[in-house]
Amino acid sequence: MEKSIVLPAVISALPILAWAQSSVTLYGTVDTSVAYVRAAGQGSKTSLEDSGENASRFGLIGNEDLGGGLSAGFTLESDIFPSSGLGGTTNTNNQKSGVATAMFNRRSFINLTSKTYGELRLGRDYSPSYWNVAKYDPFVHEGIGSAAVRDLTDTGITGVRTSNTAFYLTPDTLGGFFGEVAYGLGNNPQNLPDGTGHDGNYAGFRVGYIGHGANVAIAGGKTTYLAGDVRVLNFGGTYNFNIFTVYGFYQQAEVGGTASQTQSTILLGGMVPVGVNAVRFSAIEQHIHGDSSLDSQQLAIGYVYNLSKRTSLYATYAFLNNHKNAKGGLQETSILAPQPGGNVNGVQLGISTLF
């Protein structure tokens, strides 16, 4: 649930008419869980984890009605790690060298929106291809049941968010069809002697359709690096049969250069409502092209018990099978990674509340 906040000192400094057409909204999620994970060859670990059902965050959304169907606004959103109180990191240039601690690391952009022509965003936001990763995973890419079994290392820089980027989103007047394009800059001098002037430049897209119970989209992105470009292409969707919802997703990620590698991910899953609660489940296959010894499969099932519209309890069980040289972990290897070829089991119990 989102709440509009009023700042008296600010109100007194602004014309009454202008404030009446403007708003600032505070929103967020706090999500914490206890996770027990057992990994072959590494023993077991019990830990307090964050974001098992929803990503813990807080944010501000501002909007001003400019009239004539035009509005201006901003979004500022930050990671929260309730178990430790820490914030998150960002990437300033879409390159390995740009990692930095930031207050609004998740989303940070200004936008201009027209009901007729669509929306322009400038700043940092989710890359178009990541929307498919999150929306077409029953576990919303969070917790030990998520599709984050293992990502190619170099795709992580722009695999979720891109900085220094212009995003264009189509208006909500296309009969259920929608689209997005994005172009980002690495902010390097163009004529660097080592040839890395275009490193961190990003281009991506997403097009899809929502209607008649279906939600489908295809998306892709490319980040330029002298050492080898990173490319991502994915497509997926959900279909709501009323008594249950089916999820499907496919992604191919490629890292170029001398150590080129291509990884494909396939997910099939579902969500079954149980009154106001829900059972969710998924099966995931990850394959490294040319080396099946690095493949892995994951099965996950979970239950969400809604205490209210804002607060829920959840429980998830996941099992990960790694092939001979694979060493994927549940959600993130930081929880507990196995020895190569080892399997992983995990249980996560948590609580999530929205504000």
UniProtKB/TrEMBL annotation:
GO terms for cellular component: cell outer membrane; pore complex. Residues 9-323 form the Porin domain. It comes from the Bacteria. It is a multi-pass membrane protein. It is found in: Cell outer membrane. Residues 1-20 form the signal peptide. SUPFAM superfamilies: Porins. Pfam families: Porin_4. InterPro entries: Gram-neg_bact_OMP, Gram_neg_porin_domain, Porin_dom_sf, Porin_Neis. Homotrimer. This is Outer membrane porin, OmpC family. It comes from Paraburkholderia xenovorans (strain LB400).
